[in-house]
Every structure is written in structure tokens, then in C-alpha cells.
Amino acid sequence: AGWDPLVIQRDLGIPADGFYDVLKLAGPMAFGESVSGFSVRFTYLDPGAPGSQAVDFLNSSDFSLVHSGYTVQLTPIPEPAAVLMLALGLPLVAGVAIRRRRQDAMAAKAANGAPSLAPQ
Q1: Which of 1, 27, 60, 88 is in the most buried spot, having the most CB atoms within 10 Å?
Q2: Residue 101 backbone dihedrals phi, psi, to 5 degrees
């Protein structure tokens, strides 16, 4: 609320990166003023990691540079769905492996003439 975003995707036909632009709708900010409700999250789709990205804060009345810096690169955190699938899948795979070992052991005993434990 109170922000006007603009996203320009990277163009593969020309050597130009994309950019993200956000304008505060309530007019320019006074020097030293802080405004809440502003955060940006990107999903990087190319292989590897993007590293830090340049960030410029401009005065919207005369477009003079107010502040310049770089983003902080965060360590990727697995999505909850991936962790849940792993937590549910590992016991299932272990159960299948245990069952297969038991069946193989019973088949080996039956091949050697040992009495079967299976109900008849």
C-alpha cells in the first residue's frame, strides 16, 4: 500500500540487465525519514547464485542520488514442501528396503530347503 512498483525483465537480445523500480505514491520522502511497509524479495531463476546486487535510492522530485549500496545475499532455505517430502519419503524408502530384504531372505531359505515361515 502506497507503493507503485515496476519490473523490467532482463532482455537476452541486448546486453542489459533488468531492473526493479518502486515509487512512493505519497510524494518524496524527507531527508532522514523512514517508511515502513517496503521490502523486496526476488527469485533468481538462472543457475548458480546471483551475488550482491547494486541498489540506488533516488529522490523522486529531482532524481538525485540519496543512498547507494548493495543487497545482502542470503543462504537459501529449503521450502517446507521439500522438507516434508523428504521427511515422509525416507521412512517409506527404508520400509521398502526392509521388506525386500526379508523377502530375499525367505526366498533364499526356501531355495535351500529350509521350512518356510509363511502361513500355508
Answers
A1: 60
A2: -60, -40
Q: 53 CB contacts (<8 Å, ≥6 apart)?
A: 70, 71
Q: What's the pLDDT tens digit per position in 65-95?
A: 878 888 777 676 767 787 788 888 889 999 9
- Please state whether the predicted TM-score (pTM) of the whole model is above 0.70: no
pLDDT tens digits, one per residue of 1-33: 577 888 888 777 887 777 788 777 777 777 777
| Among 72, 66, 10, residue whose Cα is nearest residue 39 | 72
Of 41, 58, 59, nearest in space to 50 by CA: 41
H/E stretch holding 55:
strand 54-58
23: enclosing H helix or E strand: strand 19-24
Non-local CB neighbours of 44 within 8 Å, separated by 6+ positions: 50
Our separate counts of H helices and E strands in the chain read 1, 4
Q: Name every residue whose Cβ is closer than 8 Å to that of residue 49 and which is 6 or more positions away in sequence.
A: 73
